[in-house]
Amino acid sequence: MTDFEHHGIMAEPSSTDAGPSASSSQNASTSTDQAEKTPVVILCIGMAGSGKTTLMQRLNSHLHSRNTPPYILNLDPAVSHMPYSANIDIRDTVDYKEVMKQYNLGPNGGILTALNLFTTKFDQVLAFVEKRAASVDYVLVDTPGQIEIFTWSASGSIITDAIASSLPTVVAYIIDTPRTTAPATFMSNMLYACSILYKTRLPFILVFNKIDVEPHDFAIEWMHDFQAYQAALDEKGRDEQGEMAYTSSLMSSMSLVLDEFYNNLRAVGVSAMTGEGMKDFFSAVEEAKKEYETDYKPELARLAEERKAKAEEEKKNQLEKVMRDMTMSEGAASRRKNPFGPHPRNEREDRYLDDEGDDIDSEEEREIQRQMEEEEEMEHAEDLDAGDMAEPEPGAGGVAGVQSQSRTGMSWPTPR
Ligand SMILES: Nc1nc2c(ncn2[C@@H]2O[C@H](COP(=O)(O)OP(=O)(O)OP(=O)(O)O)[C@@H](O)[C@H]2O)c(=O)[nH]1
Ligand SMILES: [Mg+2]
Fold this sequence. Notes:
Blueprint: H1 2-7, H2 14-18, H3 20-30, E1 40-46, H4 52-65, E2 71-74, E3 88-89, H5 90-93, H6 96-103, H7 107-119, H8 122-132, E4 138-142, H9 147-151, H10 154-164, E5 169-176, H11 183-200, E6 204-209, H12 217-224, H13 226-236, H14 246-257, H15 259-263, E7 266-269, H16 278-337, H17 347-386, H18 398-407
Parallel strand pairs: 1-4, 1-5, 2-3, 2-4, 5-6, 6-7
């Protein structure tokens, strides 16, 4: 991919130094405490148009006003206007329109492939983030508009796992509140959030955005009061005949299933537009960070330990297999080389080789013996036939010469 190679991310984008992180390094130099702190990574995930990018900008300006500028990553290759300046921008590396052309893909395929290409270099991205980790409090990550491109793709998982295994990470699931007032849409959104939570297993925050347009109280009520949700379904979920629609009874059952999920969730309401709810959002992030330390990190360590043990076991098995193969091939080679000799390493194989050697030995010897007997017989018969014949002239050669020499016990002459 020429464009990708051309744009390579070998050097940190220049905006990094000119942007917010420049002041963050100043912060680091002014405070010795800050050198030891660990930032928290906020992964902004949400349906298309839910307000991820606008919220990123709001968080960025809020943090700047608190004198704690964040480090920003943009993973959306298709964003045309970004209201903030990112420290690392996927668009500096991959041009998704070029990817679409080169790979003959549609817009979503182009975005996915661009993300895949970017993921191949994510170790370098992570190295940049880690380098700044000591000097920032927050790392903000914007994700592609098509949620499934990030949440259900291999590259999305790789990126999430790589970040989460390096720094405390929380998922901020952004919801378009005004578009969630229908009970069925609300349930679809909750199911999606639930699936992401169980997929990533990371501390999770439900962020009801756009509360300037529609307050999120109804959503909180539906989450904590099954009856209230049921009442909303009763009111809005009936068909023209007044019958409970099929989807409504499904939603009703689902809300009972999700009860456990709701109980363990943090939910906050914000407005990326007005900045309302920022305090609640950051308190939720702090709580989630603690949860990362107490729940996710030990689990991560346990998994890492398990993986290490598995890898060790695998390595041992492979080594044993190689040793076995080597012993077998050495045995075969030594049999080929010296079928009669003892094997220096393996007693059992010794015996086998000896036995086998004996077999070959006796067989070959028998053959040689047979040939010698035949020759002797022939010689004897010839002696008898040639008994009356005159002794040939010395050096006469030919068969007569051979016979003559043979009789005198001399070596066989070279045939002329
Ligand atoms: N009223 C209001 N509008 C908002 C708010 N947040 C975002 N918007 C609007 O919602 C629209 C989508 O916002 P974006 O930030 O582009 O949403 P996004 O999730 O990044 O969109 P994609 O990346 O395309 O998925 C824009 O028109 C924003 O102005 C909010 O808090 N209140
Ligand atoms: Mg966006």
